[in-house]
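Page 42, continued from yesterday. The earlier attempt failed because a stray header line got pasted into the input along with the sequence. Redoing it now with the clean sequence only.
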Amino acid sequence: MRLKAIQLSPVKHDERIPDAVKPPDADASRWRGITSALAICLATASGTALAQNYPSKLVKLIVGAPPGSMPDTVPRMMTEKLARQLGQPVIIEPHPGAAGLTSAQFIVRGAADGHMIHVYTSSDTLAPLLTPGVVDPKDLLPVATIASVPTVLVVVANKSFKSLDEVVKAAKAQPGKFVASSAGYNTATHMSLERFRIAAGVNLLHVPAKGGVAALTELLGDRSDLYFAPVPAAMEMVRAGKLRMLSMASPKRSVLFPEVPTSLELGYKNSDYNFWIGVSVSAKTPPAIVQRIHREINAVVADKDMSERFLKVGAEPLTMTMPDLRAMVRAELETNAILINTKGFRPE
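This time it went through. C-alpha cells are written below.
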C-alpha cells in the first residue's frame, strides 16, 4: 500500500515586539555596575577552578536521537578512547524526543561544568526553528565536529535512470506525479529532497515514510521513484546491485564512493545538504573546559583506527576549528529559517 502524501502549510513564526528601552537611573546603574563586576570576578575564579580539575567524575554524552541511529552509533564508538583521553569514564545517556529538543533542553538546564556533553547534529539547526521557545540556539555552544553522514540520491537499479539530469527531465515531464520518498518530515533525507527540489525547479510528490527502512521499502517496492538515502543505509544495497547512486547531496564527494558526483558539480546550485554529527555544551561552560573538550574530541576523531571504524559504518571523520564550526551553525540557522517557509515543513 502506498503511503499517503500530505500537503503542509509553511511554518509560521510569532513576531515579538521588543520592550521599550528606558534610560537607567544613575545611582542604580552605578550599583549594578559594581555588583556585575563582582559577579564576573567570582564566576571567573569558579570557572578556573573547575577547569583545572576537569573532568572530576563520569562524563555523559547526551543523545537525543533514537538508539541505532548514526548520532547514537558514531559517538558510542568513541566513548572508550575518549575516556582514556579525559581520564574519566564516558557513557552514552539517551534523552530522545521532540527531534532532539529534549536532549538539548536537558543540557541547557543542567550543570555547565562539561560533565554533560550534548551530541549535536545539523538537526539542531532546524528543530528550534520549527518549535520555537523550547530551546534558544544561543544557549548551546558548538564545540567540535565528529563526522559527516552524506545523503545520496538513489533509484532502483533496474530503472532506466542513469543520471541526475535524466531524473530531473522525467520529473518535469510529470509535475506532481514523480514520487520522492523520505524517512519522515524534517529528517536529513527530507532536507536533502527539499533543497534539491528547489534547486532543480521540479514539482515532486513527497511521500514521508516512518523511518529510513520504510522509505527504502517504498523505493524497492516500486511505490517511489527516488530517495535521498543516508550513505550508511544505501551502501550495501548499492554494492549488491539493487540500487544505483546518481548524485551526492553533500558539498563534497564521498570518500566511500568517490566516483559519484555531487549535485553541485552537476550544476544544481544550492542543492547541497550536509548532515554532520558533533558536540555542544551549555553556553555557560567555562572556556577552559570548552577548549579541553574540543581538543580531546579532535584527537579521538583524528586517530587512524577510529577513522577507519567510522568509515566502515558509512560515517566520514570530520574535524573543524571552533570558529569554523560556529560560522557553519550560524549559516545553517539562517538558511534553514528561509527553507522552512517554502514548503512541507512542520514540527514533529
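Notes: The chain has twelve helices and eleven strands.
Reminder to self: strip header lines before submitting.
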